Amino acid sequence: HEKSNTSPIIQKTLKKNGTLNFVDLGSGDGTTILAAASLGWNATGMELNPTLWFVSSIRRIFSPRTIRRNSQLVMGDMFVNKIAKKRLQGANCVMIFGVKP
Questions:
Q1: Model confidence over 24-35: pLDDT tens digits?
Q2: SS3 64
Q3: Would the N or C end of the chain have less CB density within 10 A of its end CB?
Q4: What order of strands is seen across the sheet that includes strand 42-47?
Q5: Coil, strand or helix at 55
Q6: Under a CB-based contact definition with an 8 Å cutoff, are residues 50 and 58 in contact?
């Protein structure tokens, strides 16, 4: 898991725990999820908008194998989706995108 472009804190945590779990609620076009996966995080993105979920899924498909292996993109409501709830329980880091209604 250790990579030269990964921060020392992340490297230390990876050595201790073996994996880091990152969850992005409102993952949009997948930029953050794919970046986290490229750094060795087990990254899960939740997106409510089907168009953005589709764009992120296409970007993931055309990403390198290691990024695809470390990432998961889920379409749906983060408040009712069972996958999101399970991933949140084991998350080391959570990112939430919010907009003013």
A1: 999 999 999 999
A2: coil
A3: C
A4: 71-75, 42-47, 21-25, 93-96
A5: helix
A6: no
